[in-house]
Design a protein that fits this description.
By secondary structure, the chain is of the alpha+beta class. The chain contains twelve helices and twelve strands.
């Protein structure tokens, strides 16, 4: 065996290895040129059979060729591995900014928020301005300035969440003496007198007074926001949402209130809706009215197309929707120094529960479903 043959084997193997296009082809070349049955391997095994003067040259040349081919195979394998990895990454590339499979639905506004914003859109289109106020309110704004004198039933602890100052002792609503005390104050054994002043607002009406304190008439505002009362059942919640409306100026009458409410309720429940007003009582309006809207399920007839009684309006053809009335002159008296002279200006106020509007529009039977955060329910209102 001559050194020329070893060089020829090495040269042939190098050319094949350099030309290999993949790791699997490279593995076949390794077996062919360096495997147990390879010609170079056979030469190394037959060294002992060669004449003594050839063993050193042939053995050294064969070992050098084998080592050179092993290094070339290792280097070429690394190159091909990198190229194949790059190709796989390019083919299997995942864009993490794309939605999953199946695509996850995008989020959406809660039904209560959407209903409240719809009311805001309608009223701002009528020229009203959206204003907000604190949810922790003073007794003066929540009750006194709205014609709720001390001793009014709405002040009772079972209706209102009072905020107790640190270090003081609040009346216990379980005790008859505390629950019925008209001024909701009492002396502690140590001589301390607890008089409630801070509370979680029971309606958004306090912002009426706050808004009138900041600007003279005319004023046209709506007040959306959360309110709090001690109620919890299918149609009442300790926390719920209201939208209050206030319009004060010269020459505003009950007819203006009716026209405003008709426009708003038709925008919410349909262009064919009619409204009716029934006498009622609210401390901060005089006269006061309850407002009904003609049923949008039975078109005000009280009966469905199949002749069955309409279960939404209970066959009456009307749905109670909100309370309203002309602002009581006593309320204007609290802001008279701001230009609200009851002899010169007058106006109306109205308030509605946002949850009630949403329940009626979308057929939700239980107000608590709005706050359970069950996506199966909320996902119906995309």
């Amino acid at each position: 065996m001559s050194l020329e043959r070893i060089e020829a084997i090495e040269s042939e193997a190098r050319a094949a290895i350099e030309a290999a296009s993949g790791t699997s082809e490279l593995e076949e070349l390794r077996v062919r040129h360096l495997g147990r049955k390879a010609e170079l391997t056979a030469i190394l095994r037959g060294i002992a059979e060669l004449p003594a003067e050839q063993r050193g040259k042939v053995g050294g040349g064969a070992n050098r060729a084998r080592k050179a081919l092993e290094e070339l195979l290792e280097r070429r394998a690394a190159e091909l591995d990198a190229a194949e990895l790059e190709q796989r990454l390019a083919g299997d590339r995942i864009d993490v900014t794309l939605p999953g499979a199946p695509p996850h639905p995008a989020g959406h506004l809660h039904l209560i928020t959407r209903t409240m914003r719809q009311i805001e859109d309608v009223m701002t289109g009528l020229g009203y301005r959206v204003v907000e106020g604190p949810e922790v309110e003073h007794d003066y704004y929540n009750f006194t300035a709205l014609n709720h004198p001390p001793g009014h039933p709405a002040r009772m602890l079972q209706d209102t969440f009072y905020v107790v100052p640190p270090g003081s002792s609040a009346p216990d609503p379980a005790r008859e003496s505390d629950r019925d005390a008209p001024d909701l104050s009492r002396s502690e054994p140590g001589g301390f007198v607890w008089t409630p002043d801070l509370l979680l607002r029971t309606h958004t009406s306090p912002v009426q007074i706050r808004a009138m304190e900041t600007q003279p008439p005319p004023i046209f505002v709506i007040v959306p926001g959360k309110v709090y009362r001690r109620d919890s059942d299918a149609t009442h919640s300790p926390m719920f949402h209201q939208v209050e409306g206030l319009a004060i100026g010269e020459g505003i009458t009950l007819a203006d209130l009716k026209g405003t409410l008709e426009e708003m309720l038709r925008a919410i429940f349909g262009a064919e809706r009619e409204i009716r007003m029934r006498p009622h009582f609210f401390p901060f309006t005089e006269p006061s009215v309850e407002v009904d809207v003609s049923c949008f399920r039975c078109a005000g007839t009280g009966a469905l197309p199949d002749g069955e009684r309409c279960n939404l309006c209970k066959g009456q053809g009307w749905i109670e929707i909100l309370g309203a009335g002309m602002v009581d002159p006593n309320v204007l008296g609290f802001v008279a120094e701001n230009g609200y002279d009851a002899e010169k200006v007058q106006g109306f106020a109205f308030g509605m529960g946002v949850e009630r509007i949403a329940m009626l529009r979308h057929g939700v039977p239980d107000l608590r479903r709005f706050f359970d955060n069950d996506v199966r329910m909320l996902g119906q209102f995309l």
